Amino acid sequence: MNDPNIQELLTELQAGDVPRHVAVIMDGNGRWARERGLPRWEGHRAGMGAVREVVKGAAEARVDHLTLYAFSKENWGRPAREVNALMSLLEEYIAKERRNLVDNEIRVSVFGETERLPGSAQRAIRHLEEATAEGRRLWVHLAISYGSRSELVAASRVLAQRCKQGTLSPEQISEEELAAALYTAAWPDPDLLVRTSGELRISNFLLWQLAYAELYVTPVLWPDFGKRDLFEALLEYRRRERRFGRVEA
């Protein structure tokens, strides 16, 4: 970290509380490439560098959980060439970063309809999760082939099946029961949602889990998003007052 201003931001962050869980909608790769006259996949490749920087920054800032929206269920509708490039880049990222993630005690898990991924990508994900399973410094969650509405439908089916089997009655269905049936049951809901590229929408991402998250939108395109941008978002979060529907004290 050579930029003294970034170090100052980090020092300020480490002197106080930071959100326990940060979720990020990584948007703007295609626009970044188009502005430079490059094919879209070059934007996605550039976005890999931003992922590396943000993971490092989150660990340095002592965030516990970082969730990255890497590939939505709707993204399967993109041109086959772009989808294939994204799958290749996923495998490339895993191959390049696995050792570094292990060395820095960063755990990685992937959630979504991963059975739709190519077999080689599924194997790469499985190996990454196994290799980083002991990481305790930061837990990174990658949403791949993910859609929140589909997740909620799947969770509802789990509860319906339990009712059918007689292990749960309809009257026992609660927010806690539903939350326990989601992909994200093992970690806390996000405190902060960051969206890059200036778009003002949630894009079918963690609809249940983001109920009380603070929202932070930046015009910065994802490939240009770095530690400084992350630290500024975390400091903005600290200035917010979270009331969870209650009046202030």
Can you walk me through this structure?
This protein has helices at residues 4-14, 29-35, 40-60, 80-103, 119-131, 148-165, 175-180, 227-239; strands at 21-25, 65-72, 106-111, 138-146, 192-195, 214-217. It starts with a helix and ends in a 10-residue tail after the last helix. The protein is 45% helix and 14% strand. The protein contains eight helices and six strands, in the order H-E-H-H-E-H-E-H-E-H-H-E-E-H. The protein has 249 residues and is of the alpha/beta class. It is globular and about 60 Å long. The mean pLDDT is 95.
Write the layout of secondary structure elements.
Blueprint: H1 4-14, E1 21-25, H2 29-35, H3 40-60, E2 65-72, H4 80-103, E3 106-111, H5 119-131, E4 138-146, H6 148-165, H7 175-180, E5 192-195, E6 214-217, H8 227-239
Parallel strand pairs: 1-2, 1-5, 2-4, 3-4, 5-6
Helix pairs in contact: 1-8, 2-3, 3-4, 3-8, 4-5
User: Which class of secondary structure composition applies to the elements?
Assistant: alpha/beta
What Rg, in angstroms, do the CA atoms define?
19 Å
Shape: globular
Describe the largest sheet: 6 strands, parallel
SSE series: HEHHEHEHEHHEEH
Strand line-up of the largest beta sheet:
3-4-2-1-5-6
Low-confidence stretches: none
Q: Could you give the count of β-strands? A: 6
Strand content: 5-15%
